[in-house]
Amino acid sequence: MPKAKGKSRRQKYSYNVNRKRLYRSARRRAAPRIACSHIRHAWDPTKSMAQNLAEMGLSEDPNKAVPIPKKLGMEVESNRWQQGKKVARKPYVVNEMEYEASFPEKKSNTLSRDLIDYVRYMIENHGENYKEMARDEKNYYQDTPKQIKRKINVYKNFYPEEYKEFIALLKQEKMDMQ
């Protein structure tokens, strides 16, 4: 049976390939980056994953860490797991992770500056009249009165203190004009 046409030829060396970069990128792909910085800094590449996690006081298998007790003989099983506990050599990793997890989660969702300016402009010029807002020339996206009302409510929910200050300022300005 005949060979494929290209296979019988000698392989040519490609001079325009950076071998160092190729090797580095292959190594990076082979060993994925650990997302958690605490684990990444304590990781020992010469040891296996199970050994590394055991040293840090973490478990590789959640089923072994917190076993599901059977209905009969629950006390016997719980004692067996208590005796087989290993001492963590790097307990600071777990302590740092627990400390970081104790902080409340930051509220990261905010409104765009354009939307805030739009809502403030509409309230400033039209008050609570949503039909008038819908006919305003600054209503570029041709929002309906209900859509504008929804945007204003979103602004109220995201920035309640700022909204109250804004309304108080508007009332003060109206009082000054009269």
Automatic annotation (TrEMBL):
<protein>
    <recommendedName>
        <fullName>Nucleolar protein 16</fullName>
    </recommendedName>
</protein>
<dbReference type="Pfam" id="PF09420">
    <property type="entry name" value="Nop16"/>
</dbReference>
<dbReference type="InterPro" id="IPR019002">
    <property type="entry name" value="Ribosome_biogenesis_Nop16"/>
</dbReference>
<comment type="similarity">
    <text>Belongs to the NOP16 family.</text>
</comment>
<keyword id="KW-0539">Nucleus</keyword>
<dbReference type="GO" id="GO:0005730">
    <property type="term" value="C:nucleolus"/>
</dbReference>
<dbReference type="GO" id="GO:0042273">
    <property type="term" value="P:ribosomal large subunit biogenesis"/>
</dbReference>
